[in-house]
Design goal:
alpha+beta, Restriction alleviation protein, Lar family, two-stranded antiparallel sheet
């Protein structure tokens, strides 16, 4: 399943939705309370992963989407 499909399918459900990037933290049911990926347009990730993306951008060590947890589910 690709990341965009994952966000569209699970973000509105009543059960907790895991972050597609780390697979550990849960996403808030209100999309505006989550971070939006800097590298994948329109994809919501947890705030911890949002911070990690910012730090990786600063250091020049970005994490490719094929390294996200959801791509291995």
């Amino acid at each position: 399943m690709d990341v965009r499909s994952y966000n569209e399918k699970y973000l509105g459900e009543k059960k907790p939705t895991l972050c597609p990037r780390c697979g550990i933290s849960t996403l808030d049911k209100t999309p505006a309370r989550n971070s939006v990926s800097r590298h994948e347009e329109g994809i919501y990730i947890c705030s911890s992963c949002g911070t990690d993306e910012a730090m990786r951008d600063y250091s020049g060590t970005t994490l490719n989407i094929d390294q996200w947890v959801v791509t291995h589910w």
